[in-house]
Specification:
Blueprint (H helix, E strand, L loop, with lengths): L30 H10 L16 H22 L4 H12 L18 H13 L18
Helix pairs in contact: 2-3
Length: about 140
């Protein structure tokens, strides 16, 4: 190996090293790439650039004919003898119009290693479980 020392030159202001050639060259900064992007971009006369493919008109017409039968069937299911079926049918009809209940989410960004170790030890000891304990209260109304 050649052990001669060479003097170290200062770095160029544009970030190029005087001793090494760049490993890769970003082709996205060339004029040829800019011209390519302009060529494949929006073209006048094209209907769609991307996104969801349109549903064919034949399928839309066929689905439109099935809507009346689906509504009749849903109406029959709403008056079913099985409560679960009737509830599911009613929920399917009402759910788009009834707002969902607001949920309160509490987030704490304060963490400590001692709290984490305490929770891990409690979980291992069986002091913490994923079961929610529910104790019913007697309201005193025995009918």
């Amino acid at each position: 190996m050649d052990t001669e020392t060479r003097e170290r030159l200062p770095r160029n202001p544009n970030g190029n090293s005087p001793h090494y050639k760049p490993v890769a060259f970003d082709q996205r900064k060339t004029e040829a790439h800019a011209a390519h992007c302009r060529a494949v971009g929006f073209q006048p006369g094209h209907k769609r650039m991307g996104g969801r493919k349109p549903i064919p008109e034949e399928i839309k017409m066929h689905l439109g004919e099935m809507v009346e039968d689906a509504l009749v069937r849903l109406h029959e299911l709403m008056y079913s003898e099985k409560d679960a079926v009737a509830l599911a049918a009613v929920d399917k009809v009402i759910s788009p119009f009834v707002p969902k209940a607001a949920r309160k989410i509490e987030i704490s960004h304060e963490h400590s290693v001692s709290d984490l170790l305490q929770r891990v030890n409690d979980k291992r000891a069986g002091l913490i479980t994923n079961v929610i304990d529910v104790i019913p209260e007697d309201d005193g109304d025995d009918i």
